[in-house]
Structure formats: C-alpha cells, structure tokens
Design goal:
By secondary structure, the chain is an all-alpha fold. Helices cover 74% and strands 0% of the residues. The protein has a domain of 110 residues. Pfam families: Proteasom_PSMB.
Length: 509
C-alpha cells in the first residue's frame, strides 16, 4: 500500500484526534486515481475506517463515509464480506442514515456476483437486519432496503428461500413482523415479494407459499379506498408476466377487477383506483390478447372510452396508454374499429392533443397514434383487413396529416421532435405510408438534409426513417431509382455523417 496513505490509516488505530487524519486521508483519496490504489487497498485496511464511525460527530461520520464510498468499490466484494461482515452489520444499525445507506450500498455491490449472494446467504443475521430497515423512518433508507432485498431475492430460487421459506433460518418471520407495523410498511414488503415473484414460476410458488402474496390479494377487497388504490397499482405491476397473470386469474383477481370497473360509476372515490385497474387490464391485453378481456367484460371498450373523456387527468392518461396497448396488434385494431363512432371520436381527440395539448399529454398522444398505425405486429394474413383501418385513422390526424406530422419533427422540444420522427418511421413501414410520404412536397429534400438536426437523438431518429424507407421493396418504385440511390447512400454514410466543404462544392459545381 502507498506509504503516505498507509501511514495515515495506521494512525487512525492509535490517535484519538481522528478527524484531522481523516481529512488528510480524504484529500489523498480525492487526489489519487482509483487505478493508482487498485489492488493495493485491502479490506483489512478499511477496518480502521469503519471504527471511525463509532461517534456522534456528524462531520467525522460524513468524511469517513466519503472515504469508504471511494475505497470500497476497488476492493473485492467477497473479501469485504469475509473480513468486514460485522462492520457492515453494525452499519445497518447505525444512528446515522448516511452510514445505513453506505452499508446497504455495499451489500448491493456484494450480490452483483453469484458467489457474493451465495456467501451473504450464509449470514442470516445481516439479512434480517436489512429486512428491519424496510421500516426505517428515513424513507430513502427504507427504499434502498426494498431495492436491495428485491435484487437479492431475485438472484436465484435458493436465495429467495432464505427470505421466504418457513425454515427457521429464513427471514420470513422478520418480514411478517415488519409488515405488522403499519400499512405503508406492509406495502413495502409486498413490493419486495412482488419483485421476486416476477422472475419465474418457481419464484412465484415460493412467494405464494410464504402467504404474503395471498395477503396482498385479499387487500383488493379492503374498505379503505387508499389501500385499494395502492393494491390495484401493485397488482397491475405484478400482472407483467404470464405466470403471474395465470395466478391472479386463478386467485379471482381478474374477475374482481372486472367488477370494480363495472361499478366504478357507483363508487365516490373510484377515480383514485381506476388508473391501477386500467393498467392491470392493459397488461392482460398484452399477454392474453384484448379479445380475452372483451370476452370477460363486453363493455370494456365502452368503459375505457368513457374514462378517456373524463375530466380526471390521471385516468385520461392511463386510458390513452391502455387503448394504445390494445391497438398495437391486429386483433386490437379490429376490436377498436368495431366501436364505431366512439373510436373515431377517440382518434380525433388524440390527434387534437397531439397538435396542441400539454407537452406530457402530447407525447402520450403521439406514441398512441404510432401504436394505432403500427403494422409490425399485424399477422400477414390480416394485413389486407387492417390497412384500410390504419389509413382511415391516419386521415383523421388533420386535413393535411403529413404536414402535421412533420411539424412535430420540427418542434423545439427534443422529446416531441423524436416522437414525431418515430411516428413518421411507423408510417414509412406502411404501404400506404410510403405513397403518402412520396406525395408530400419537399419530403425527399427534408429527409436527406442533415443540417436540420443538431442533436444525437434527432439525427438517429431521422436516420431510422430513411433506413425504413430504403428497406421497403416498394421504395424504388414509389420514390424513383434516383432517389433510391440517394437514400441508400444516406444510410451507408450513417446517422452522423458530415459533408466536407470540398464534396459540397463539387456537388454544387
């Protein structure tokens, strides 16, 4: 180890006036590069630093944590666990939130390897103490504990068992004890378990056996509206994998959600939990298809359009996103068009928002319009049935749809500008879209003009449009062979090509 740093850290062992020494160590660490001290600093050297945390002096704690945060990442995590396990455990119970954060951060680094997670599973007391931090008064510490335990539990089924099995050595009883402290803390535990179950059927089975998942499902019927809001949102997130959806259907959650949606007009506070219900059905549409949802609840689309036209912004946003999820596949497009005038009114309103709504709503509207017009997930056998539908929706954008879309591509706001290019890229993938783009004056010049975009994201987004056009077998026929060669050269040069003054002068000559 470098002598000056070694001497300073050694002095921490014997010198009672530690803060001045720590400040010198900090200065040394700030000045040195990590490569200069890598493979030199060992876990045993850090023991003296951890001892400096046994104080009530806030400045000394913060300086020590700064040094440890700088040095720990260059030490082998297994070495840290083997030699500093007690120091880490002491950090989890420290009175300072800064130290508790440090300990959780280091545990998170340890489990980035399978070996580290496996070794940590041999320290059940450390895990139990981490579980207790779910109830920490400092919300950021509690959130860090939730994130760590989620990542730890997702490592493998064997690791998950150390948390959720009924074995005396597991942390299940500690989890249940923490759950009993308050509603908010109980939902933090639910979050950990929901994150773990998403990994696989085996993980889900472990979570079911623990009894915690069934506890969450029961809360869907709770009379406390605020609890129901949180429960709906969590179950919607849980319904993001097929094995989870299968369980939720068997547990009666799907039928309960249908009932809640049907009776939403009778509940005075339904606006609070409807977004979670809609998100749940959006996930169900993604994994099981929108037709299954419509079969279970024939009035689903009617309810969805009614919620979209409500005055509640959060409900409106989720309704927009749910309709987009439905409309991205051919089955969904056919279901939506069967709604007749309600669907037409929806598309018209989306187009209005797309052109003149608030920025966040405009982004959602442009994205949903892209999903409605998208043909990438359309079954080839149904293309002929879907093309007239998407063309009719395109014509609803405005009296001059292509002009409206290009105006989005020229917006000063980067997110809207890129979403405009993504919508244009979607249209470039349609047979009628290529013709619409070819018929628009100056379209060729605009797409080939590299000077219109100055940022990386926009250059890439425009490049994708040109690339999609070149890949179309109909492009040369529609745009002409000369333009095809120009577009192909554009693609060959890449998104960030800059013309030299010489080549420009030659072209102009």
């Amino acid at each position: 180890m470098d002598l000056p740093l070694a001497t300073l850290i050694e002095r921490l062992r014997v010198d009672e006036d530690t803060l001045p020494i720590l400040l010198q160590v900090k200065a040394f660490v700030v000045a040195a590069t990590s490569s200069a001290i890598k493979n030199i600093v060992k876990a045993s050297h850090l023991h003296y630093l951890f001892n400096c945390l046994h104080t009530n002096d806030r400045e000394q704690i913060e300086v020590t944590c700064f040094i440890l945060n700088s040095l720990l990442p260059i030490v082998d995590p297994l070495e840290v666990l083997m030699q500093l396990s007690q120091s880490i455990q002491n950090g989890l119970t420290h009175q300072s939130d800064v130290v508790r954060h440090l300990a959780l951060k280091e545990l998170g680094r340890i489990i980035t390897t399978v070996e580290g997670a496996g070794a940590l599973s041999e320290s059940p007391e450390v895990i139990r103490q981490t579980v207790k931090l779910i109830a920490d008064e400092d919300m950021s510490v509690a959130s860090a504990a939730v994130n760590f335990l989620s990542d730890y539990g997702c490592t493998s089924p064997n690791i998950a068992r150390t948390l959720l099995s009924h074995d005396p050595e597991s942390s299940l009883e500690t989890l249940k004890a923490v759950m009993s402290k308050s509603d908010a803390i109980r939902y933090r535990v639910f979050e950990v378990v929901c994150n773990i179950q998403s990994e696989s059927q085996e993980m889900l089975d472990l979570c079911i056996d623990s009894g915690i998942i069934s506890h969450l499902v029961k809360e869907l019927s709770d009379d406390d509206v605020l609890l129901r809001v949180t429960c709906c949102a969590m179950l919607a997130d849980m319904a993001s994998s097929q094995h989870s959806l299968n369980y939720l259907e068997q547990a009666g959650v799907v039928s309960k959600m249908v009932e809640m949606l049907k009776n939403s007009h009778l509940e005075p506070f339904s606006d609070l939990y409807i977004p979670g219900v809609l998100k749940f059905f959006g996930n169900l549409c993604m994994y099981s298809g929108p037709q299954q949802v419509v079969d279970m609840y024939p009035g689903f689309c009617d309810t969805l359009f009614n919620i979209f036209h409500s005055n509640e912004p959060s409900n409106k946003q989720v309704a927009i996103e749910t309709i987009g999820v439905i409309g991205i596949i051919d089955e969904g497009k056919l279901i939506l068009v069967d709604q007749g005038q309600k669907c037409v009114s929806f598309v018209k309103e989306i187009c209005r928002i797309m052109s003149s709504g608030a920025q966040d709503m405009r982004l959602r509207a442009v994205n949903v319009m892209g999903q409605l017009l998208d043909h990438r997930q359309v079954n080839p056998e149904k293309v002929d049935a879907v093309l007239p539908i998407t063309l009719s929706w395109y014509k609803l954008i405005s009296s001059t749809p292509m002009d409206t879309i290009l105006s989005l591509c020229k917006q000063p706001f980067l997110a809207i500008r890129c979403s405009g290019f993504h919508l244009l890229n979607t249209i470039a993938g349609c047979s009628w879209g290529i013709e619409a783009m070819s018929d628009f004056p100056t379209m060729t010049e605009y797409l080939l003009d590299r000077s219109t975009e100055s940022d990386k994201a926009s250059k890439e987004a425009k490049y994708e449009v040109v690339q999609t056009l070149v890949q179309s077998p109909r492009f040369a026929h529609v745009f002409g062979n000369q333009n095809y060669l120009k577009f192909r050269q554009f693609v060959k040069e890449g998104p960030f090509y800059v013309e030299s003054e010489l080549s420009t002068a030659i072209e102009e000559a």
